[in-house]
Design goal:
- This protein has 303 residues and is an alpha/beta fold.
- It has 15 helices and nine strands.
- Strands 3-2-1-4-5-6 form a six-stranded parallel beta sheet, sandwiched between helices. Strands 7-8-9 form a three-stranded mixed beta sheet.
- Strand 5, helix 6 and strand 6 form a beta-alpha-beta unit.
- The radius of gyration is 21 Å and the shape is globular.
Length: 303
């Protein structure tokens, strides 16, 4: 007998992920604080619920996709939360990006109620969510991972069990370090090259064919070249993720000096009112520091 899937959190990532599950034939019960995404999913074939507790009461596997640790704690705990409505034998799969210690606490609280829990944050952004090609890093019990694997394979292309509770969040923190530093590096390269007289699209073409090739240039090419910072993944959220990485580094005795520098880029952009921009918007700060906007080169002459 197929399991009913609950899905809580219908944002930029959650909506396409939920759509993919419906299209794959899964029976879905959804909830979000906003009405429009719920109505969109109901029109696609899902059932709506009025609370997180109701989702859990009507589901066997509950997926959460939320913005931060406080949001997860709010949805999981309390009289109207997931654990209040979940039954023994249910599975909670949190696909949010949160602090590893929060994931560990959620797994412990769930276990005390006979509910299994996985932390399964994702990478791949809005495009990966839409195309079902996310990278999913999963912490928790191996048997619970196997139970959820068919769902993960609908949502992602790379699905890896990385360890026990909280381990998925640790790997996601590592991922977010690399992504943030790569965006900053690409931004600096584009501003340097363009100000020195080379077209930015040419720079991306050449870098993409060598050792410097990376997915950031692939997936955010349009954002960089057109200064289109419509959020796929907001600066506010990446700032939160680097805080997690830096706090985890502090707890583990691992210095992260370059991560700390890029975090200051993000903090500066937030202070300037750009927290809602896509994280490729780091380019804006690099341009400001260089007093140069790519694609608008001025002809320079030698003295």
């Amino acid at each position: 007998m197929s399991e009913t899937i609950g899905f809580i959190g219908l944002g930029v990532m959650g909506v396409p992920m939920a759509h993919n599950l419906v299209q794959a034939g899964h029976e879905l019960v959804v909830h979000d604080h906003g009405r429009e995404p719920v109505e969109e999913l109901v029109a696609a074939g899902a059932a709506g619920a009025s609370s997180s507790r109701e989702v859990a009461e009507r589901s066997d596997v509950i997926i959460t996709m939320l913005p931060d640790s406080p949001a997860v704690e709010s949805v999981v705990y309390g009289d109207d939360g997931v654990l209040a409505g979940a039954s023994e034998g249910d599975l909670l799969v949190d696909m949010s990006t949160i602090h590893p210690t929060v994931s560990e606490a959620v797994a412990k609280a769930a276990g005390e109620r006979g509910v299994a829990a996985l932390d399964a944050p994702v990478s791949g952004g809005d495009v990966g969510a839409q195309q079902g090609t996310l990278s999913i890093m999963v912490g928790g019990d191996a048997a619970d991972f196997e139970r959820a694997r068919p769902l993960f394979e609908v949502l992602g292309k790379t699905v890896v069990h990385v360890g026990g509770p909280g381990a998925g969040q640790v790997v996601k923190a590592c991922n977010q370090v690399v992504v943030a530093l790569t965006i900053a590096a690409v931004s600096e390269a584009l501003v340097l090259g363009d100000k020195a007289g080379v077209q930015p699209d040419v720079i991306l073409d050449v870098l993409g064919g060598g050792l410097a090739a990376n997915r950031v240039m692939e997936m955010r090419r349009k954002n960089f070249l057109e200064h289109d910072f419509t959020p796929g993944f907001r600066i506010d959220l990446h700032h939160k993720d680097l805080n997690i990485a830096l706090e985890t580094g502090d707890a583990c005795g691992v210095p992260l000096p370059i991560t700390a520098l890029v975090q200051q880029y993000l903090r500066t952009l937030r202070a300037k009112g750009h927290g809602g921009d896509d994280h490729s918007g780091i380019l804006q700060l690099v341009e400001e520091l260089a007093e140069h906007r790519i694609g608008e080169r001025q002809t320079t002459t030698k003295a």
